[in-house]
Amino acid sequence: MKYSFLNGTSLPGIPWQDKPAGFREGDIPLWRYTENPIIKRNPIPGVARIFNSAVVPYEDGYVGVFRGEQTNGIPFVYFGRSKDAIHWDFDQDKIPFVDENGEPAIPAYAYDPRLVNIDGVYYAIWCQDACGATIGMARTTDFKTWTRLENPFLPFNRNSVMFPRKLHGNYVLLSRPSDSGHTPFGDIFLSESPDLTYWGRHRHVMGKAPEWWESVKIGAGAAPIETSEGWLLFYHGVTGTCNGFVYSIGGAILDIDEPSRVKYRCSTFLLTPEEWYEERGFVPNVCFPCAALTDADTGRIALYYGSADSYVSVAFTTLDEIVDYIKDHSVVRPDDAEIGKH
Ligand code: BMA
């Protein structure tokens, strides 16, 4: 392997399919699982669709936090487990969040979860109501007790992901300040906290770009992946059309010590809606990444993304191929390359 995952672990059972025949020189090296979508409609009673969801390895299998759109239209997050990270069993009840005193602490709604393991503690992060949409956060060590933490930010904020380890002694979070609606703007920012309660040292990481596929707004996707080239970030980029937004998947590599500095940023999308399950659904033309599994031995990456706000899908790549593609197609503007302290 040309590049390596730092602090990566072996995951021999990672979902995988080889690159399909017919790939041409220069094609984008991110290919869809042929059995997509892996989670179909009406997955559990009372939930019409699961999409935009996060998975991690756990014990001898996988667990995840899933965005379930209830049949009353209100989103919430559900726990799921799997032996192979493809076939999932879901709890039929919502995740029973509690506060630090063990009292129920259920937000009015919850969506677009991410999940990260920091030193054996798992943190779920999602968007929820706090007199306006903002970020919610909970920790668990056993996936039975989920203890809510303070909301890191004021409304309005969405698309938060945490780095899988501390930097400069602090927890590090990416987020996307937004508005109360469908937000016609949005850049990715970084914030740090010594204790997961007080957040500061806010930095601008990267903005929407002149390339049309990400010219309206961007938002972090999967938790950043630590590699020998820097933090590999899969994110979403949005364009506007006469028929509404189109969500594609992009890739960037952030500086390992100062991740508000962008080292490489792919000027092309890595995946854009093309298949029926991406183009057709509750919200058409959405590919929304929320998680990635990696295998340190082979460099394999399985990227999980919500499709058309209706399904969960998977795409595959390898570390070497995706990093080389991002570097070969990188355009980093001065605003992205600086540490983002204005
Ligand atoms: C965003 C979020 C996502 C959704 C996307 C496309 O604002 O609400 O959950 O996938 O819009 O509808």
**What integer value in Å does the Rg equal?**
18 Å
Overall 3D form: globular
Question: Class by helix and strand content?
Answer: mainly beta
Biggest sheet architecture = 5 strands, antiparallel
Work out the number of β strands.
21
Overall pLDDT level: 97
Proportion of β residues? 35-45%
Low-confidence stretches: none
Distance between the termini: 38 Å
Label this structure with key terms:
binds beta-D-mannopyranose, about 350 residues, 3 helices, about 5% helix, 5-stranded antiparallel sheet, mainly beta
Please provide a brief summary of the model.
5% of the residues lie in helices and 43% in strands. It is built from 3 helices and 21 strands.
Blueprint of the fold:
Layout (H helix, E strand, L loop, with lengths): L30 E2 L14 E12 L2 E10 L4 E8 L6 E2 L19 E9 L2 E9 L3 E8 L6 E2 L8 E6 L8 E7 L10 E6 L6 E7 L10 E4 L4 E3 L2 E12 L2 E11 L7 E4 L10 H4 L7 E9 L4 E8 L3 E8 H10 L5 H4 L5
Antiparallel strand pairs: 1-21, 2-3, 3-4, 4-5, 6-7, 7-8, 8-9, 10-11, 11-12, 12-13, 14-16, 15-16, 16-17, 17-18, 19-20, 20-21
The chain binds beta-D-mannopyranose.
Characterization of this structure:
- The chain has helices at 276-279, 319-328, 334-337; strands at residues 31-32, 47-58, 61-70, 75-82, 89-90, 110-118, 121-129, 133-140, 147-148, 157-162, 171-177, 188-193, 200-206, 217-220, 225-227, 230-241, 244-254, 262-265, 287-295, 300-307, 311-318.
- It is mostly beta strands.
- The strands form 5 sheets. Strands 14, 15, 16, 17 and 18 form a 5-stranded antiparallel sheet that branches. A 4-stranded antiparallel sheet has the order 1-21-20-19. A 4-stranded antiparallel sheet has the order 2-3-4-5, with no helix packed on it.
- β8 and β9 form a beta hairpin.
- The protein binds beta-D-mannopyranose.
- Beta-D-mannopyranose binds next to β6.
